[in-house]
Amino acid sequence: MELFNEVKNRYFQLVFRIINECADGRTKTDLVKIVHDGEFEQKLIGKNQQSFADMILNKGNKDEKLNLLSEKEGLFYPCIDSNGESPLPVRFTNLEKAWLKALLQQQEVKLLLSKNTLDKLNKELEDFDSPIKQEYFEMTNSVKLPEISQWENYEANFRLILNALINEKPIRYTNVDRNGNIHADKLALPVNLEYSMRDSRFRVSLYSIDEKRPIMANIFSLSSVIIVDEDIGIDRETAKKLLFEQKYSEQPVILEVTDKNTAMERCFMCFSGMERTARELGNNKYEIRLNYYLFEEENLIQNILSLGPYVKVISPQRIANEVIKRVKKAISL
Amino acid sequence: MFNEFIKHYNIIRDILRDCFLYGYYSRDGLENKRNVSSRKVSYEIRRIQQYVENEYIRFDKDGRYKLMSLSYDFLRHPDNFLVSTYMTKSFTRTDLLTYFLLLLFIRSENKPCSLKYIEDGLNAGGLVSFDKISSKTIQRKLAEMCESIGVLSCEAVKRTKYYSISDDLLKTLDTDELKELMTAVGLYKNIVFPVTAGYFCQQTLKDYLQYERKMKYEDKNIYNYRHVHFHPVIEEQVLWEIIKAIHLRRKIRITYHSPKSTSNSNNRKILSPYKIRYDVRHGRYYLISFNTHNRCIVSRLDRLEAVELLEELFNREDFDEEYRSNMLYSWSSASLTPANKPETVKLEIIINEPAENYILEKIKYEATLGKLEKIEAGRYYFTLQVNDSYEIIPWIRSYAGYVKVLESKQLAEKLLNDWKETLSNYGIV
Fold first, then answer.
1. Quick one: CA torsion of B83, B87, B88, B93, rounded to 10 degrees?
2. Cβ neighbours, 10 Å, residue A207
3. Hey, is the C-beta of A243 within 8 angstroms of any chain B C-beta?
4. Residue B340: its pLDDT value, please?
5. Which site among A100, A277, A293 would you substitute to test the B interface, given the most B Cβ atoms closer than 10 Å to its Cβ?
6. CB distance from B263 to chain A under 8 Å?
7. Is the confidence at residue B60, as pLDDT, over 90?
């Protein structure tokens, strides 16, 4: 199957949903709403100015009606009765089966799927020949951290945190930071499980109830993790919002980029996950404004330095000064 | 059925990349860059506006020019919005009707059905008019749904083919196991390539829970990602063809993107595809393949216009050693040029211990083939081999103030000149 296939077209998917939703009969109003929610904001118009909803509701002449639904006593049903089952079966396509089989080969998928689930899926897919194999890929420019030594502890922590996240429960834990300081019996609400593709590590984003601020922790360095039923006075959505608000820089970084040696392209690729705008200044120069999180500042500075003389920090002066300081030091070494 | 959809993903691929990565082009600018008519640019921009959700599109004014850009924030937006651009392939009314009528009919019969049985059934119900949809069309659609798409299965009894709904591979999973799978797919959809297939898989699983199991599932968005770039998804159509070719050991003919001269035969090469290298830092795919003279060829996927799978086969194992020797010391994509040896790069690392020990750790884990040697407290030598030392310049630059290049002299000189130029940009001489 092609990756770009019409059965995955948004409107194909919409027809699929509409037919299954009509299993027990749906009114015209219901259907108009489903179409409205599922189609593009700018509605599509076919020949003879027919909308998609018109086609679904069999309006127009006989060449324009889809007739996939039939109307009985004001309710629309699939044109073929499914005898109590959902009218259209839901099955994975070959492309999806290939991806699913590749998923089962991921080392850390065992943290998410029980042995029973894995065994069942592996059995179902054992004869399916997936072209997605890890040996066909090699990751470069990545970070290879040491293996996690206490895998069992890591696995237990991972499962427990995942459970806490799904059920929106706070946890108590002990952590040892980079400098060896022990933080015992801390109370926090897990906000997100974070995966870094660069070092293939999972970390947990927490909202510390004790310190009233968002923090990030390595899952393997936690111990004595337990889910608790304590009233913490904050929910996950609020904690997330606080993370966005407290940690987002008020001022963007403004860079002037000279587009030599594909500097613009490298610049955009480095900063692709940041909200940004750009404009041409003329003379092969461009201005880029990047919004960033304060905890990303060191990475941002390193990225700016990596782009060399083609990038100049216009503001904030604090970041420009830091870049200048490091460059001066580099020359003096 | 609708003009808004496209037959080939390539139609929007370049403009989508320009809008996403750069965003500073006006319509005139894009017209000049891509060497296409302003009408085409307007058309494709309008399509992209329709395909991508509004919250990711922004318009800025630059004088009289309107600039469209696509942008997201990695923490707030864990879902790759560019995947929706793959849900836009054009279809005909016949495509739509035959696909759904066949699924509806075979499902309702709940038994294997022959072509004739299906045709008779659809005809009796007045659902298909054979002067509009021919028997051949139905037969072709059934074959496509079996062999290519995989939602139907087919069994031949004597000379007659019988079609059924494909086996439900989730049938043995209970509710909790399905939820587990949903959690796993939700995480890996951004990690396992091609990610578009992961997103499709997640949607199918959601539909399965809702319609086959009548379960309500609430997606809690519990994941976020770092260093997961969204833009590589634009190359996944090409990536998917290459992965299939590698797997089937089939040679390919690739056509490089060349907007100004499409007829240049130098742009078309026959290659044995071996591996995909993905530069995690920049989000860039490279194809490593071998030409007919067994020479290692590196191609950026965003520079490939098309990939054609040929019938001719190759033996992948023939290139195992070639790949190893060519790419072992490649930082990202540079291969070893024939008759050349890897270069030695020697750095001195100067840090304040123990406060800056993390710098040492980072360097060690980012360049795992390097060798670290302590000279004295706070001073270390770090030696590594690379195919092309110019490829690691950005990496060395990122440690400005902590590292000094000792070897090679040319590399040290290049970096020193870079730093002097950087300072002069700030008005410091």
1. 180
2. 24
3. yes
4. 84
5. A100
6. no
7. no
